């Protein structure tokens, strides 16, 4: 942070997060305030991350932004909300400190470039990582040190949960202005080292309703959604926090599955109904339950967001066998794609007893690939200048 | 009814009913008492019916029963409950009347044969028609004239709704003994002559969870189910009754779809989750909503029970076009099967504008066939002796 330099360049990365207590429905569309608290697991950036570079310079004449190499309209309301909010916080902080007068840098225009290291085809909500990275990077260039929940949240609600590593809750808050609707860490990155995450990327051509539109329709039409948010989620939050602190996979896994099912139930109760799960998703659900029934305990758990992809939670000692189960049930159709990405997973044999217990006809090509990952840290600052996505001229570097 | 003849033979038919306010969950498993009232439309027996013959004779040494030509165990608890209940009613009625002493016939054993005129492949709940027909036929041979709701209900809850034609409600009742959990007609068969019903039989190999087991699991695990039954269904019952009395298809259709979606939402909220809908079901749902959106009004409505088949409600002036829409979206794979069964439906052209509005890639073979039918009457007594399924010897007639 050197706010009076003519040019300041900062590059940061931020993680994807997967909710185990689901956020579905806003009580304030503009401020992006949720109707219930939610809780998520931050995924490791070795597998999934957004990288963002922000440059401020007195020579820039306008704010500009590039996403995955494409120039996009910086005038988008949510991007504008983030920029407005971070500059407000910067101004506030400085004016609170007499010895440090308002720096010129606050009037500087900013150039921003952001890229994801994972294919959008993966259907993973990239907006959370994207807006968390935007908020975090802007905070560095403008020298903001206060809580960034609101900055990230104004871009995408669940983005505030990507501001921390480990296990993170987004407290819904009660205030109309949303000042108390903030994210905080429930447990750090290394709290539960055995926990593993498998992302099963499902083949699907169907174009889906965006979660923003879906939530609005659910809020307007689903009586089950309101009941869930008010009567059921508060207890779920307390239970889930307890299971995480105790590293109780039985409780964690079962509540994670029930939460996912209940959230998708409110989507089905929406009018017209919303179905993010498809037949492959349902086969994965069946597979998980049969696998757990075979062992007489919850060794694997699924959760689904606004799409058919499954996110599987399990412990390190179960990863290899469950991956073998998935490959047995969804044999790879050679699509030139690497089926297993991320953390290395050793091959494991499947007992005939287990195969019989699964009793499913294989569905070739039902799953495109698997990403194996784990719990990870929050946003990072990259010191290596080579990491910058923008040159000193504030323009995207030619990607060789 | 000639209870002192050495042999009495009676043959009756009973209809299938389709719930528009759903029954899901029992408050008493043994008496089969529901957690909420439900409301159904009785389908016409020209297309779908059960036929049952009952013979009583002093010469029979034991009760016997044949279903669709197969001898089955008469000791089944639900069959026994029906027999016990009908004989209790017969005894009660006679003992209440001095001039008519207990007839011998009450001690006679009964032979019963029952057949459906529709393939079980159709996945239509045949138990409702079956137990309604059993209750109604036994009432004839034993001379019972009182309300048969309990007799039918003890066989299969929704069977009590098949005891009447037209539009029928099953009042949940409040008494622990279930005496006030009875069916009654809301509107007669000819009340809404324009109403039509299309059953879209979906291709599906998946074996499904029986509704009995499904309901039990939902009762044990779904908080949304209890909320729906207590807080939402009572209002739905009143609204639906109003829409039917007013012949308001907009209201009737929309509430029918919302009820179906909400019932299946509680199945998804069950743990492990239950999914009766598959991708074809969901495409039908999408098709219906796009069709209605195109016309800016609810011209067609869907409802689903414990399987992927869709039951479509519409009015006579829309049948031809919507059937054309279905055949356009699910082109027939020649399976040697007649695609369109039941009421005649004339071919109708589809405007390019409508085809564009549907904007769906065809799914060949997704639907096996369509049964076109309408609202129908309640159980009937067949006077023609040739209709009897059992001979005077009380054994199934050789089916030529």
TrEMBL record, chains A, B:
<keyword id="KW-0152">Cholesterol biosynthesis</keyword>
<dbReference type="GO" id="GO:0005524">
    <property type="term" value="F:ATP binding"/>
</dbReference>
<keyword id="KW-0067">ATP-binding</keyword>
<comment type="similarity">
    <text>Belongs to the diphosphomevalonate decarboxylase family.</text>
</comment>
<keyword id="KW-0752">Steroid biosynthesis</keyword>
<dbReference type="InterPro" id="IPR020568">
    <property type="entry name" value="Ribosomal_Su5_D2-typ_SF"/>
</dbReference>
<keyword id="KW-0756">Sterol biosynthesis</keyword>
<dbReference type="GO" id="GO:0006695">
    <property type="term" value="P:cholesterol biosynthetic process"/>
</dbReference>
<comment type="function">
    <text>Catalyzes the ATP dependent decarboxylation of (R)-5-diphosphomevalonate to form isopentenyl diphosphate (IPP). Functions in the mevalonate (MVA) pathway leading to isopentenyl diphosphate (IPP), a key precursor for the biosynthesis of isoprenoids and sterol synthesis.</text>
</comment>
<keyword id="KW-0444">Lipid biosynthesis</keyword>
<keyword id="KW-0753">Steroid metabolism</keyword>
<dbReference type="InterPro" id="IPR041431">
    <property type="entry name" value="Mvd1_C"/>
</dbReference>
<dbReference type="InterPro" id="IPR053859">
    <property type="entry name" value="MVD-like_N"/>
</dbReference>
<keyword id="KW-1207">Sterol metabolism</keyword>
<dbReference type="InterPro" id="IPR029765">
    <property type="entry name" value="Mev_diP_decarb"/>
</dbReference>
<dbReference type="Pfam" id="PF18376">
    <property type="entry name" value="MDD_C"/>
</dbReference>
<dbReference type="InterPro" id="IPR014721">
    <property type="entry name" value="Ribsml_uS5_D2-typ_fold_subgr"/>
</dbReference>
<protein>
    <recommendedName>
        <fullName>Diphosphomevalonate decarboxylase</fullName>
        <ecNumber>4.1.1.33</ecNumber>
    </recommendedName>
</protein>
<feature type="domain" description="Mvd1 C-terminal">
    <location>
        <begin position="197"/>
        <end position="382"/>
    </location>
</feature>
<dbReference type="InterPro" id="IPR036554">
    <property type="entry name" value="GHMP_kinase_C_sf"/>
</dbReference>
<dbReference type="GO" id="GO:0019287">
    <property type="term" value="P:isopentenyl diphosphate biosynthetic process, mevalonate pathway"/>
</dbReference>
<feature type="domain" description="Diphosphomevalonate decarboxylase-like N-terminal">
    <location>
        <begin position="14"/>
        <end position="183"/>
    </location>
</feature>
<keyword id="KW-0153">Cholesterol metabolism</keyword>
<dbReference type="Pfam" id="PF22700">
    <property type="entry name" value="MVD-like_N"/>
</dbReference>
<keyword id="KW-0547">Nucleotide-binding</keyword>
<comment type="pathway">
    <text>Steroid biosynthesis; cholesterol biosynthesis.</text>
</comment>
<keyword id="KW-0443">Lipid metabolism</keyword>
<dbReference type="InterPro" id="IPR005935">
    <property type="entry name" value="Mev_decarb"/>
</dbReference>
<dbReference type="GO" id="GO:0005829">
    <property type="term" value="C:cytosol"/>
</dbReference>
<dbReference type="GO" id="GO:0004163">
    <property type="term" value="F:diphosphomevalonate decarboxylase activity"/>
</dbReference>
<keyword id="KW-0456">Lyase</keyword>
